[in-house]
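tool=predict chain=A
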Amino acid sequence: MRAFPHPRSPLGSGRALVLAALAVLAPTAAGCAKEAEASVQLEVVFPSTAMAIASSDVKFVVYDDPAPGGCQRIYLKRITNQTDLPPVVLDPPSVPVCDIAFGLAPPLVLPLGKHSILAIASRGADDLLVGCSDVAVSAEGGVAVINLALPSATPVPPLSTCPSLRDACDDRCR
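tool=predict ok
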C-alpha cells in the first residue's frame, strides 16, 4: 500500500504542495515552542542577623547577560542608579525575608542558559542590601547562592535588639 497517491493522480500534486508547505512551516512552528526551563532555588546570605532583621523583603530580577562579569556590571549599575541594564528575563514579586530565611520562597523558573540574578533587600521603600549571582541554568536546575552586601553609599539602619531572625519573624521582639 502506498502512503501517497500516484503522481498522475489529481490529488498527487496538491498533496505534494501541502507537504512542501509543511516542510517550510515546521521550523517556524518549532521556534514558537516553549523554551526549555528549569527551577532554581535561591539561597540568600545576609551579612549578619541584624541586617536580615533590618530587611523587610528581597526583590529578585533575572537578567539575560551571558558575558563573563555580568553580575559585577549589573551590581554597579544598580547601586549607581544607571538604567542601561541588560534585558530582563524574569521580574517576580518581592519575597518576605522570613519566607527566604525559612525556605518558603518559591524557586525561580528560568530558561536554560546563563543569567545574572540580582537580589535587592529593602527596608520599606529603600534599597538596603544588594547582591548578584551569575548562574548557568541546566535542565537539572539547581541552587543559586546570592551574597548580599551593604553598598558603600547606604547608611546603616538602626539595628534591632532582637536576638534571632526567628524571634523577629514570629514578632517576639519589641
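The two ends are 84 Å apart (CA to CA). The helical segments are 12-32, 49-54, 70-79, 97-101, 165-169.
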